């Protein structure tokens, strides 16, 4: 089998354990697996920023300016240069199968996050953006998690977040509208947590309509 990221042949490690009970076929090679860089401790307890012993500066600012909106974010991998290229291939060049490269680590992190039993909220795309990409990355992640998406938001079309600087993102108008209120705890699923503005736009609307708890889960931070 070839690695779905780099197309090099995947060489399986052979031990007595794997000889007696063959493992599931690996979808990525050891080299690419290493470059994905899963996030481990230490990390910010509020947003999962890697290599951060205590609550990071950005989260402290959020606590001061918008207290009580988002309980916490949990992310799987560092948003390094290798992963930026993967995101570009996945989201913007239509290489949908790449989500399989993240599957095992995503599922493991989801279980360890303790989010089971919460309603899982999809981050919508505008109709134009959905037509451009051919799929919604939030839905793709929710499918990997084997959860049922809750599509309760609509989104107006606007400039891509990736083209905005941090200051512009922080002061952007809320592009979402909440179409159905919910009181139960929810987890918003997205691909990347950068400034946290997107999930807090959504959390703000949810909290105003009586949602008891809002957290988020993303692949990259």
From TrEMBL:
Q: Where is the Phosphoribosyltransferase domain?
A: 138-220
- Stored InterPro entries: ComF/GntX_DNA_util-trans, PRTase-like, PRTase_dom
Q: Pfam family example for this protein?
A: Pribosyltran
Superkingdom of this protein's organism: Bacteria
Q: What is the residue range of the signal peptide feature? A: none
Q: Gene3D superfamilies in the record, alphabetically?
A: 3.40.50.2020
Question: Which SUPFAM superfamilies does this UniProt record tie to the protein?
Answer: PRTase-like
State the family named in the UniProt similarity comment for this chain. Belongs to the ComF/GntX family.
Protein known as: DNA utilization protein GntX
Q: Which organism is this entry from?
A: Halobacillus karajensis
């Amino acid at each position: 089998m070839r690695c779905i990221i780099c197309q090099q042949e995947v060489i399986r490690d052979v031990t007595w354990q794997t000889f007696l009970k063959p493992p599931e076929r690996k979808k990525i090679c050891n080299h690419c697996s290493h470059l994905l860089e899963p996030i481990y401790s230490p990390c910010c307890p509020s947003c999962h920023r890697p290599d951060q012993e205590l609550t990071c500066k950005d989260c402290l600012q959020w606590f001061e300016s918008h207290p009580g909106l988002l309980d916490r974010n949990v992310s799987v991998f560092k948003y390094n240069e290798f992963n930026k290229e993967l995101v570009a291939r996945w989201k913007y060049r239509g290489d949908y199968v790449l989500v399989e490269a993240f599957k095992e680590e995503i599922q493991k992190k989801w279980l360890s996050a303790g989010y089971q039993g919460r309603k899982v909220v999809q981050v919508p795309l505008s109709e134009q953006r959905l037509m451009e990409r051919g799929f919604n990355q939030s839905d793709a992640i929710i499918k990997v998690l084997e959860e049922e998406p809750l599509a309760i938001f609509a989104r107006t079309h606007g400039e891509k977040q990736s083209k905005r600087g941090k200051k512009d993102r922080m002061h952007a108008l809320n592009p979402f509208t909440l179409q159905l209120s919910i009181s139960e705890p929810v987890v918003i699923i997205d691909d990347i947590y950068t400034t946290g503005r997107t999930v807090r736009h959504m959390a703000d609307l949810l909290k105003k309509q009586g949602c008891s708890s809002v957290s988020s889960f993303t692949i990259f931070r």
